Amino acid sequence: MTEEVQFCYDSALEQNEKVLKHLEHELLKIRAGKASPMMLDSIYVDYYGVRTALSQVANIATPDPRSLVVQPWDRNMIEPIDKAIQAANLGFNPQNNGELIRIIVPPLTEERRKQLVKQVRAEGETAKVGIRNTRRDANEELKQLKKDGTSEDEIKEAEEKIQKLTDTFSKKVDDTLDLKEVDIMSI
Predict the structure, then answer these.
(1) More reliable by pLDDT, 17 or 110
(2) Can you spell out the DSSP letters for 12-51?
(3) Whole-prediction pTM value?
(4) Among 104, 130, 160, where does a domain finish?
């Protein structure tokens, strides 16, 4: 395999790994009945005029599987954090005691679980589209290399390797989705 063809394959591999990592990160944000600090990753607060991630202005802990505790490093931030959590519309009702904010994570209803599974499947489909786009880009790059003089047999072999890579990563996406779906549907 020539250096250019190997580079094309390595580039596709790297891109697919990024797609899978992104999927795993997005799935962490979808709650499965257990409390996780990642649930609050999308929350930003106004920290002295600067829009700042909640994790940058407070410590977020999970003392038990059903609750989160947010303890700001600056007590003046307790009200803006409380308002930001309510405004995020995550279905939480934060309880502010003046020093920290306690969030009780409500148990999921069957209907909500089904909605979350649909959301997980949508994230999975987005990941699969990314993997297919990577395959398309790699194949276009290989066609260009063929025009530039790389042998037809080598291009054919590389296309087969890229297809196997695509199949492997599609299977990994399916496995990841199945695990998350089981996690969501288990009570």
Answers:
(1) 17
(2) HHHHHHHHHHHHHHHHHHS--SS--GGGGTT-EEEETTEE
(3) 0.74
(4) 104
